[in-house]
Structures are given as C-alpha cells and as structure tokens.
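USER: I would love a firmer grasp of how sequence relates to backbone shape in proteins. This is the protein in question:
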Amino acid sequence: MSRAIKIVAAIEACKGLVVLLAATAVLTLVHRDLHALALSLVEHLHLNPASKYPQIFVLAADDLNNTRLMLLAAGAVGYSALRFVEAFGLLREKAWAEVLAAGSGVIYVPFEVLAIVREPSAFHWGLLVVNLVVVAVMVHALMRRGRTSGGEGRSAV
C-alpha cells in the first residue's frame, strides 16, 4: 500500500473524529436553555448583544430545539461513521474505499472554489489543494488497480 493512501486514510479518520466530537458537543446542548447559553457566551466575549452579529447568533440559538439538535447530532454521527468506514477500507486496500474517497473529495471542490472567489485566503487555498491531492491520489490508485489485470493482490470487495 502506498504511503499516500495511508495518509489519506489518516485524514479521513481525523475528519471522522472531529465531527464525532462535534456531535458529542451538540448532544450536550439538548435540554439546555440555549438562549441563556448564547447570551452568556456573547457576554463572556464582551460583545454587545444588541449589535448585528451577536444578535443573529442569539436568535439562531432561539430557533434551535431539541429535535433539531438531535437531527444535527445524528447527521454528524452518520458522517463520522462514513469517514471511519472509508479510512478502514483504504487501509484494507478496498477499491470501493478508493472510489468513495475520490468521490467525496471531488464533491467539495466546487464549494472550495466558490469560497476562494468570495474570500481568497490561505485557508481556503489550502483546503482546495489538499482535496485535489486526495482526489489525484485516489484516481491514481484506481488507475493502477485497473492496469494490474483486475487488481491482483488487492481485493476489490
């Protein structure tokens, strides 16, 4: 297995872990007074709750309810599980994982390009470059798999 694929697997596992931690944080908000929590955070940051952006934040917190929080957390857990399965498949040299990694990397490219057009920054450029490298590594792996007469030595299932 190539070192690049191991790095991609590690990136995917890290993405899964970060999102799983975020889902856990969201679940801690269930059955809490989100309005009071948002106001407390705004005050802690020494922001004016009546100004535009802090007010938007407080109003967004008012709009969240336990059902929405649970749906957000469930979506995050599903995404996280997908990333962990993808990382596992890449480490086991599965073709489906390489296709999944290439496809999921390509999906983000238009959004990253749009972010660069709206607000060019080193962060957005970095995300775009990393995703393009991941896609290139996966496409190369899939092409190599196709040239080795059906993927001898590497199981497709």
In short: The chain has a mean pLDDT of 88.
